[in-house]
Amino acid sequence: MAKLRHIALSVSDLQTSAKFYEEAFGMERVRESDVAVMLSDGVVSLALLCLEKNDNAPDERGSGYRGLHHMGFLVDSVPEQSEMVEAAGGKYHGQILNVGAGEEFERKYRDPDGVVIDVSSPEHATSSWRVPVE
Q1: Across the chain, which distance is largest between two alpha carbons, in Å?
Q2: pLDDT (tens digit, 9 = 90+) per residue, 31-84?
Q3: From the centroid of its chain, how far is CA 22?
Q4: Who contacts 84 (Cβ-Cβ below 8 Å, separation ≥6)?
Q5: Which domains are delineated in the chain?
Q6: What is the Cα–Cα distance from 70 to 9, expressed in whole angstroms?
Q7: For residues 41 and 63, is the Cβ–Cβ distance under 8 A?
Q8: How far apart are alpha carbons 46 and 21 in whole angstroms?
Q9: pLDDT score for 1
Q10: What pTM does this model have?
Q11: 106-110: strand order across its sheet
C-alpha cells in the first residue's frame, strides 16, 4: 500500500519558513541545500523549496509561485505503482534532474487535476526525505 510521506511547498524564503515550522510544530531539519530545506516530524517530511534558486527542477508555474508544489508517496515498487497511477488516469511528468538513480527509484506524475505527485521507492525516501520507510 502506498503511504503519503512528504509534502513540498514553494516558499519565498527558506530560512524564514523553516524557522516557522520548527517553532510552530516542532519539526526538525533533516537535510538542507541552497534550494531546499527538508523538515520531518519523524513520519512525514515537509520539503520547503525556493523556485527562484532551483535550476534543477524547472516549473511551468514560474519562480514566483507559492504554495503546494507536490506531494510524495512511498511505494513498494515504483514500476508497479506507476502502472496503477497511469491506469487510474495519472500522466507521467518526469523526474527531478540529477536526483536519485533513475525511474526505478522515483517518478513524477500529475493527477487528473494537474497536481504533481512523486512515486518513490524506500531507497529514495531514505536518502532524500529521511523518514522511516516501514
Answers
A1: 41
A2: 998 889 999 998 889 999 987 765 555 567 776 778 888 898 999 999 999 999
A3: 19
A4: none
A5: 3-129 (3.10.180.10)
A6: 7
A7: no
A8: 9
A9: 82
A10: 0.79
A11: 28-32, 36-40, 45-49, 3-10, 67-74, 116-120, 106-110, 91-94
The answer to whether 54 touches 35, Cβ cutoff 8 Å, is: yes
State the average pLDDT over residues 103-115: 86
C-alpha cell at 26: 516542532
The 3 state secondary structure assigned to the chain is: CCEEEEEEEECCCHHHHHHHHHHHHCCEEEEECCCEEEEECCCCEEEEECHHHCCCCCCCCCCCCCEEEEEEEECCCHHHHHHHHHHCCCEEEECCCCCCCCCCCEEEEECCCCCEEEEECHHHHHHHHCCCCC
- Given the C-alpha cell 510552530, which residue does it identify? 24
Place of cell 512523486: 118
Q: Grid coordinates standing for 30?
A: 533533516
Alpha carbon distance 4, 116 (integer Å): 13
